[in-house]
Amino acid sequence: MFDKILIANRGEIACRVMKTAKKMGIKTVAIYSDADKNALHVEMADEAVHIGPSPANQSYIVIDKVMDAIRQTGAQAVHPGYGFLSENSKFAEALAAEGVAFVGPPTGAIEAMGDKITSKKLAQEAGVSTVPGYMGLIEDADEAVKISNEIGYPVMIKASAGGGGKGMRIAWSDEEAREGFQSSKNEAASSFGDDRIFIEKFVTQPRHIEIQVLCDSHGNGIYLNERECSIQRRNQKVIEEAPSPFLDEATRKAMGEQAVALAKAVDYSSAGTVEFIVDGDRNFYFLEMNTRLQVEHPVTEMITGIDLVEQMIRIADGEPLTITQDDVKINGWAMESRLYAEDPYRNFLPSIGRLSKYRPPAEIVTKTNMVRNDTGVFEGGEISMYYDPMIAKLCTWGPDRATAIENMRNALDAFEVEGIGHNLPFLSAVYDHPKFVSGNMTTAFIEEEYPDGFQGATLPYEELERIAAAAAAMYRVTEIRRARISGRMDNHERMVGTDWVVQIGEYDFPLTIEADKNGSTVLINDKKHRCESSWVPGQTLALIDMEHGTLTLKVGKIPGGFRIRNRGADLKVFVRTPRAAELSKHMIEKLPPDTSKMLLCPMPGLIVKVDVEEGDEVQEGQALCTVEAMKMENILRAERKGVVSKINAGAGDSLAVDEVIMEFE
């Protein structure tokens, strides 16, 4: 077995690989850029080597720099993680030339299956059902439009070397095909150094289901069941689960056997994933093969008990698989939520900055609950604009799907993140959505259920009533503390009342509270709510034991009450005396400034180009400018007809969120 492994990656996946390597008694080497000099993966490693400036194309994907780090440290093997060089055959060849093991598949398999065009041709030759499309290289936007018309809209424009949703666009018209082709080429060149593009038919209402395979160099291959990855936004997975709530045993077996046969056709060894789209009748079509470890691999590990990273390392060392297909079982259900540094209230645009608070829920293992958090960040760390916005993967397990979902709801409620925009509220809302709970979702779920973006979850009245009772109990604790302050004047003892009104949005909850040494009993609408908790003022997480279980609340202080976040809802909760509540109805609401005649930069980013000039008349939907952030290009369009009166930024300018790009008459 290897003595030392270099992890040619960063963030949570680098930390994940290190955990298994250390468990196996293998020393680890980290590489890092300027932006990552204080990163968690650098701290976790036994050794660390600086490899260059912050942009990935000047550090993490420069093969020569990674090879230099290998030579400096004497690493015997390299685990590439995912992204960066993980599917780069030239990197695998460079390692082989140095006599260093690549913890991944052979070069031939990477070239055959890592390239989407080649892999589709091979799949067709092997008799695998594939999606209709044009597999040749496309030279320019005019040819892209021509091919799109021949295939028939809608079409998917994809980067041949792509992954992670980058270099991918859906086009429904000639104009979108033209724009999508250019943006996909730009993103592909920036992220992968390869701007080749192909086009295929976009299958509407599909489910995205993938099969995990594991093959060794001795001809053995197995599949480790499937993962459901249909909850996606902009072709990027958000929530994954294993197994799929849609597949039956016969379809699972057919997909698994086909995936293994495809892997064996290219002499595959290591872990890999064969992705399929599946229609409503359980017909499945080969989409692509990822010749690396997938982001969502933890859910497979949780239902099978197999450490995929360990298996990859053992296979790279030449060991045969000791697991047979009969050994692979499905034990319970697992969920994964990707925590992204993006603002769901701003159409999920990237967010950067310092993590002023980062406190994930405790990792636990019981007979009915398992919580796992794969992360590469820490409280006080910086979220950089140079890399992927994913900062953690929160995973839960349960003996069945309903329990796994409930465990995830509670874990999300207990996850505290401050300082940046993040998608925790959105994730919570999805897990409460009836369509998700039923398991009846497609890859269009987010687009269909949140067509106008995410504006926060709306909790049912019964849940708001429980929160009102909890808020009253917490407020009473704060009032008691104030009443007991030292240094009071004689005969000025402060009395804490029993009658209050809790105001949450449009709802008023008049209540009476009675306290004892163990907690409070709150009477609302002739219904008693018992609240018991060890919460004290200043704590940002409150666990309130109530009827129907524990209520987990993220708590912040505001004048006259609390900011409370629960199940995707962000609430201002005011606790007032009956008279103060009556008078509050007459308070004038402060309105935000009018920015309707301005184009604001929706996230920190770089202006790639400006498509209009001062004095131009623009139409609704017309492209105004393109902003790049975290390697993704975002085209900003006019919301309505107007005339450009002033342009404040140009190509090459780096802007902060809400900076004014242009103004309109």
Automatic annotation (TrEMBL):
CDD domains named among the record's database cross-references: biotinyl_domain (cd06850)
Alphabetical UniProt keywords: ATP-binding, Biotin, Ligase, Lipid degradation, Lipid metabolism, Magnesium, Manganese, Metal-binding, Nucleotide-binding, Transit peptide
Keyword Translocase: no
Reactions performed catalytically: propanoyl-CoA + hydrogencarbonate + ATP = (S)-methylmalonyl-CoA + ADP + phosphate + H(+)
EC class: ligase
Gene Ontology molecular function: any one: ATP binding
Tagged with keyword Metal-binding: yes
EC number: 6.4.1.3
Residues in Lipoyl-binding domain copies: 586-665
Top-level taxon of the source organism: Bacteria
InterPro entries: ATP-grasp, BC-like_N, Biotin_BS, Biotin_carboxylase_complex, Biotin_carboxylation_dom, Biotin_COase_C, Biotin_lipoyl, CPAse_ATP-bd
Biotin carboxylation domain mapped to chain residues: 1-451
Domain ATP-grasp intervals: 120-317
Cofactor(s) required, per the database record: biotin
Pathway annotation from the record: Metabolic intermediate metabolism; propanoyl-CoA degradation; succinyl-CoA from propanoyl-CoA: step 1/3
Pfam families in the cross-refs: Biotin_carb_C (PF02785), Biotin_carb_N (PF00289), Biotin_lipoyl (PF00364), CPSase_L_D2 (PF02786), PCC_BT (PF18140)
Annotated GO biological process: lipid catabolic process
Protein name, as recorded: propionyl-CoA carboxylase
Organism in which the protein naturally occurs: Celeribacter halophilus
Taxonomic path: Bacteria, Pseudomonadati, Pseudomonadota, Alphaproteobacteria, Rhodobacterales
